[in-house]
Every structure is written in C-alpha cells, then in structure tokens.
C-alpha cells in the first residue's frame, strides 16, 4: 500500500493493495466500504460501497453512493445521495443523486444524475441530468445524447446528438414510453406548462422533432420533419421537411404500392330527406334514394386533393330524385339528375382542389 488512508469511524471498511487511496469523514459514513487495488482512488462518504481496480475513481460528498460501486475504469465518480448505483469500466463517467442506476463503459462524462432505474451503456459524452426526477430510462452507445427533465420508461439507442427534453417543472413532464433509435439531432420534447408525449418514437433520420402534446406518434427515417402539436396518433415516414396536418394521419412523400390499395366503402343513409357525406370518413360511399321523394346531398370535412366516388341507387319501390348542397359544382352549372327508374344505379365522382368545393361528374344507368 502506498498512501492508503482511513479517517473517522469507518466501520467494516478496508483498503487492499492500493496506491494513494483514502477513506475520510466520520459519523459512520464509510460503513461496509472497501477500496481494492486502485491507483489514486478516493472512497469518501460512501455506504456499503466499493472501488475495485481502475484509476482516479471516487465516491464524493456525504452518503454519496449508498450500496454503490465502481469497477475499473478511469476518472469515474459517484456523487450525491445515490442508492444502488454502479459504474463499470469506462472513462470520466459521473453518477449522482440517483437510485439503482448503472453506467457501463463509455467515455468522457457520460452522466446519470437525479434519477432512478437508469442504465447507460457505452457511448461518449452522453448526459442524463435534471432538476427533477427521471425514472426507468436507458441510453445505449451513441454520442452527445441527452435526457433532461421528468422522463419515464424511455430509451435512446445509439445515434448522435439526440435529445429527450422535458419541462422546467413537474407541471411539464416529458411523458412516458418514448424511444429514439439511431439517427442524428432528433428530439422528443415536453414544455414548461404542458404534459408531454406518451408513446412516441423517432426511428433513424435526422433533425426530426416530436413536440409536447403529440402522443402516440412516430417519425421514421425522415429528415427535418415535425409532428405538429397537438396532433395524436399520426406518423411521418421518409421524406424531408414534412409536417402533420391533423390527428390520425400518415404523411409520406411518395408511395409505391406493390399489390392493391383498398378503401372502406361507407354507407350514407338519408335522414329527414338529407344525405350527409362526411368526407373525412373515406373516399367511397353508397346511398339509396328515398321512396318517391327528393334527397339533398350535403358534404362536410372536405379535404383539398381528395377524390370521392358515390354509388347512387334509386329506390326499388318508387324512383326518387337527388339535389345538392351549395358546395357542389357541375359542368355548365347544371346539377346531375338521377336515372328516373326504380333500382337504377348511377356513379358520381367528386374532386376538391381547395377543400371547400367539390367539382362533380356523373355516369348513368349502370346495369
């Protein structure tokens, strides 16, 4: 031993085959601690803790690493009120203020502070830090990745400069069940006043953002794309600089389908002589006219770029007629008229270029 040092009531503590190692303090702060075979190690203020091998590793401040340990590595530190934490190998890593946290390998100030149930494995310059608690999160490999503020059940796997950022208070939580897998400069973020995002994922790509309030969303292999808050259950796949426009939306730049694309056929049932066509529910509809009376077709939730087909069947008992609401336009300004035969089938097609009006054409009397 060269420079081994024990001071205070260091019950059940020991230094074995070490150089420049020390245990200091009093009030039983060093109970059940041990330093084994280190160079420049300092075991200070640690309960039931150990440093084994390595160089310049340390526990620091009172009750720093209760039931914690450092195995090998260089310049690693456990500091500030942690329970059950461990650093294994690695260089320049810091764990503090957390419970049951693990840092394995890695380099240059991978940090895990003020959280519980945290694991970091490998990587460089990664940071889990907050003024409030972070629970049950993981960061694996990667470089310059960051967790900050109120994250739970979240993971960053690989990648570079990816971030999960919560709010500045417990009123602004990041949310739970988040993941960033690979990619570069991607971000899932909460806000200071709004609870954040539950069940969100960014997979690959770069400079993508899922902001506060956008739950159950995903960005996959895109660049510079953004889930617009507070859209829910939406996804962006591929492309560049894409944004969502509503809930329950999938945004893609180009779509090639090998096989068939099938849309659900909605049924319009006239009520009080009005047929209501909600354009947000689909692109194909059927409607049967009432017995010997007129049905007025009204459209709602029209979307620019939408094409809708309507199969119109006349009444089987007595032929009815159809009229149209103000949002419909026809060639020459003359509205379509249904085939005046019982059970006759006509097909109408509606196209919208502005999200307000529907330009219509019709074909008659299919049999």
Structure commentary:
The model is unreliable at about 1-10, about 20-30, about 40-45 and about 165-170 (pLDDT under 50). This protein is about 0% helix and about 40% strand. It folds into 2 domains: about 15-250, no CATH class; about 265-365. It contains no helices and 36 strands. The strands form 5 sheets. It has a 14-stranded parallel β-sheet, with no helix packed on it. Strands 2-4-6-9-12-14-16-18-20-22-24 form an 11-stranded parallel β-sheet, with no helix packed on it. The protein is mostly beta strands. The chain has strands at about 15, 25, 35, 40-45, 50, 60, 65, 70, 75-80, 80-85, 85-90, 95, 100-105, 110-115, 115-120, 125-130, 135-140, 145-150, 150-155, 165, 175-180, 185-190, 200-205, 210, 220, 235, 250, 265-270, 275-280, 285-290, 295-300, 305-315, 320-325, 330, 345-350, 360-365.
How are the SSEs placed, and which strands pair?
Layout: E1 14-16, E2 23-24, E3 34-36, E4 42-44, E5 50-52, E6 58-60, E7 65-66, E8 69-71, E9 77-79, E10 82-83, E11 86-88, E12 94-96, E13 102-104, E14 111-113, E15 115-121, E16 127-129, E17 134-140, E18 146-148, E19 151-157, E20 163-165, E21 175-181, E22 187-189, E23 200-203, E24 209-210, E25 218-220, E26 235-237, E27 250-251, E28 265-268, E29 274-278, E30 284-288, E31 294-300, E32 307-313, E33 321-324, E34 328-330, E35 345-351, E36 358-366
Parallel strand pairs: 1-3, 2-4, 3-5, 4-6, 5-8, 6-9, 7-10, 8-11, 9-12, 11-13, 12-14, 13-15, 14-16, 15-17, 16-18, 17-19, 18-20, 19-21, 20-22, 21-23, 22-24, 23-25, 25-26, 26-27, 28-30, 29-31, 30-32, 31-33, 34-36
Antiparallel strand pairs: 32-35, 35-36
